[in-house]
Amino acid sequence: MVSGVKIAVIGAGYVGLTTAACLTSLGHRVVCADIDPAKVRALSRGEVTIREPGMAELVGVGLAEGRLRFVVGAGKAAPGAEVVFLCVPTPMGPDGAAKLAALEAAVAELRDPLPPDSVVVNKSTVPVGTAARVGELLGRPDVAVASNPEFLREGSAVHDFLNPDRIVIGSADLDAAKRVAALYEALNAPVLLTDPASSEMIKYAANCYLATRLSFVNSIAELCERMGADVNDVTRGMGYDQRIGTAFLRPGPGWGGSCFPKDAHALLRSAAVIGSDFPLLRAAIDTNARQQRLVVGKIRQAVGGRLAGTRVGLLGLTFKAGTDDLRDSPALAIAELLAAEGAELVGYDPSMPGAVAGIRVVDSAYAAAAGASALVLLTEWPEFRELDWERIAGQISGRYVIDARNHLDPLVVHHAGLLHQCLGQPAPQRALSR
Ligand SMILES: NC(=O)c1ccc[n+]([C@@H]2O[C@H](COP(=O)([O-])OP(=O)(O)OC[C@H]3O[C@@H](n4cnc5c(N)ncnc54)[C@H](O)[C@@H]3O)[C@@H](O)[C@H]2O)c1
Ligand SMILES: O=c1ccn([C@@H]2O[C@H](COP(=O)(O)OP(=O)(O)O[C@H]3O[C@H](CO)[C@@H](O)[C@H](O)[C@H]3O)[C@@H](O)[C@H]2O)c(=O)[nH]1
Questions:
Q1: How far apart are CA 314 and CA 335, in angstroms?
Q2: ipTM of the complex
Q3: Which of 165, 221, 333, 370 has its CA at 20 to 30 Å from residue 247's CA atom?
Q4: Which amino acids are annotated catalytic?
């Protein structure tokens, strides 16, 4: 006899699949629905297509124990569910606002088959006020609505879900909120019960704060470079201050991914809709675009001022290491800027992404370096630190390695006779004198 709370998860992407697999591992019974029949078929066979450590194992165990099932369509998952998690996409619309079409479609499908006294919990990132709107759309006074934003990071989704810094639950119905909190009891995490609007705002505030912090760090890196300071030491010195902390201080080619850019634009748009503004967030977004142009400027300079007809090798295409997700990747944004100036792009990424528009994707870092006028590291994959730089020096046609993640050991690159140029340090030669 299979025990545990009966849960439906709508959406089998990064958030939905993680939620389904992890709640199963906590002893609950989960039916996970998606609109994509091919995805449902593959998952039902235990085939996990996203790159997330531990996910395939959890899905395999859940299927084998009969605790986890995949179905096509939200309506199929609803019957018998005590709690329903909405984990559908909320992409950026043309005006910057989050598009709620998938959420509305899922809610419409759930309206009739939902059992009485069930709770609909929104895990998608949605503008403040959406929980109230979900309640209206459902039109089921016997069904409670809650907001329970998700804070997992791609590449460590299972770990983050099972080891959360906090669990936030917002609902006008305290009993419903407590029922949702009880699902996570085994995690022993701090639980914040609040109203739906505050819960929805917590998610945007957290992501926009982190994005703003990164834009701040990237700006400090630029000043360091121009003023003769070393941003690696500067951020280390900042991070020792417990009020600041060490996380999220690495300069880079700008922040990206499926969340930060769209969430920053969505909050800015929400502010505009109520006749307000958020100039600090606007500046963080502008600084991010500027950071990408700045990296392009370094590359242009490294190849002698003219990108047209110049081959540039790209190391890393995903928005960060440890994921195969290319959505809103700064590496691709930079590639687009380079291509617009006529550069010929050859790229390698350890996640082996297949075809990428405008880039000739090759199967090794060495192939990306061969014949390139400059080699640019855009994603901080650990394996790039282990490269044979002597071999690269023998294949590259230029001398510059632009390290847009401050990821490589400058001495190793220099010893191979190449010029290592990272962010926030005055000159490529500096490492030699250390
Ligand atoms: N990716 C992350 O790291 C992350 C973390 C926290 C929060 N979020 C938020 O969670 C939400 C989902 O993001 P994601 O990255 O999991 O998206 P995703 O694109 O990886 O997955 C969404 C899934 O929902 C399915 N879907 C779409 N419409 C549906 C419908 N009507 N019924 C059933 N399934 C449907 C899609 O086919 C897809 O498989 C977004 O609001 C996002 O902002 C994402
Ligand atoms: O010191 C740092 C840390 C991150 N980044 C960049 O910031 C972006 C976002 O990174 P990360 O936060 O690790 O990735 P996500 O998986 O998008 O996770 C963020 O977005 C999710 C979706 O909302 C949230 O759930 C997570 O809490 C939040 O960290 C990436 O481009 C990173 O390369 C840096 O440049 N420097």
A1: 8
A2: 0.99
A3: 333
A4: 259
